[in-house]
Specification:
This protein has 361 residues and is an alpha/beta fold. The protein folds into 2 domains: 177 residues, VC0802-like (2-Layer Sandwich), CATH 3.30.2130; 167 residues, Rossmann fold. It has 10 helices and 14 strands. The protein has a 7-stranded mixed sheet with strand order 2-3-1-4-7-6-5. It has a 7-stranded mixed sheet with strand order 10-9-8-11-12-14-13, with helices on both faces. Helix 6 packs across helix 8 and helix 9 runs parallel beside helix 10. The longest helix is centred in the middle third of the chain and has 17 residues. Monomer.
């Protein structure tokens, strides 16, 4: 345990605006499973959640960003800073840091929430970040250059004169700053849903897994494919795709011979032989989708899958737990399951599931 995280008083998590109750419920549930008592502080539409608890350092190590569904970024919380005067925001921060047993930091990130109330501080975050970095170096909290492998000091701006201090270890940080990938929409993509699958492949798989599992000539299917956003992504990775949908696909997808379009019901169609991949982004009741996805694994129709579950307006965390349980029960076998609400998701979550090789069991 580093001295930096030992000073933690809780966890601080960024989330999609409007999903603060879901992240709060997830923190509460996961902490209870680990035997850690605490309580969440969440304000609707703020884009972040605080979870205050006693054994925060240990909980932070076990509940990193990747292990949480609704957290884009989750770090150890050091202190709340309700008074950061405009004329001097740096001194109160340094005063708090001097009162802690700290080893120093390798980098600093001044951030804001991805919410209407947070994005207005983007400019302030950039300017304050430069000033804070210089002050930390001057007062011995950082070396002369950034060292990303060392702990990072975070300041979440919650207002023009308030913020929250936190710290993260290198292994706990998301692949993208604040968990937000800056992906550009390709003009050739049939729909914006292509960004969801692109982000899922970048976020839920490692680079080594992408190289191993997305090879030229592998076979996949896309259930509910029209107009073809997810089919297009798979095709660009070199896969041979069977697109299942009664609706039309963009004609350009059928030009190079890598895509076969079958007009069929995604809930009824099944392949004649096992496929490497099955993906699904159908607009349907999440429990029904989860059940069908589990049946694909139970029947040995695919080795791995990425699918979305559209969430209801209320009790969304409870619905997620219900759907994941239904999925695993329908599959009837141990699976490697990774779940995330991605930046390009809206009222939904994205699930990766894959067979576990014998050497991993």
């Amino acid at each position: 345990m580093s001295a930096n995280t030992a000073a933690a008083i809780g966890l601080l998590g960024w989330c999609r605006q409007g999903f603060e109750p879901e992240l709060a419920a997830e923190y509460q549930s996961k902490a209870a499973e680990l035997g850690v008592a605490g309580y969440a502080k969440a304000q609707r539409d703020s884009g972040y959640v605080e979870f205050l608890c006693e054994d925060a350092a240990a909980l932070s190590r076990q509940l990193g960003t990747n292990s949480l569904i609704f957290a884009r970024q989750s770090i150890a919380m050091l202190a709340s800073l309700p008074n950061l005067p405009r004329e001097d925001r740096i001194t109160p921060i340094l005063d708090v840091l001097r009162g802690m047993d700290l080893n120093g930091f390798g980098s600093v990130a001044v951030e804001y929430s991805d919410a209407d109330s947070g994005r207005e501080f983007a400019g302030l975050a950039r300017s304050l970040g430069n000033a804070l970095r210089a002050a930390l170096r001057k007062h011995g909290f950082m070396s002369g250059k950034d060292r990303p492998h060392l702990p990072c000091l975070h300041l979440l701006l919650t207002g023009a004169e308030s913020g929250i201090l936190g710290v993260s270890d290198f292994s706990q940080r998301p692949a993208f700053p604040m968990g937000i990938p800056r992906l550009r929409m390709n003009a050739q993509a049939p729909s914006r849903s292509a960004l969801k699958l692109e982000e899922a492949l970048l976020t839920l798989l490692t680079e080594a897994e992408r190289e191993k599992w997305l090879r030229d000539g592998m076979r996949a299917c896309d259930l509910g494919a029209a107009p073809g956003g997810w089919t297009w992504v798979l095709m660009r990775h070199g896969l041979l795709v069977t697109a299942i949908d009664n609706g039309p696909l963009r004609e350009q997808l059928l030009e190079n011979g890598r895509v076969e379009h079958l007009r069929a019901d995604g809930f009824r169609w099944s392949p004649k032989f096992p496929l490497e991949w099955m993906v699904c982004d159908m607009v349907e009741q999440p429990a029904r989708v989860a059940q069908r996805m589990g049946e694909w694994f139970a029947n040995d129709w695919c080795r791995r899958s990425i699918f979305n579950l559209k969430l209801p307006m209320k009790k969304r965390y409870a619905e997620v737990e219900h759907c994941l349980q239904r999925f695993t029960e329908a599959a009837g076998m141990p699976l490697d399951i990774r779940v995330k609400q991605l930046y390009h998701d809206r009222e939904e979550i994205t699930v990766y599931a894959g067979l576990i090789s014998r050497k991993d069991r």
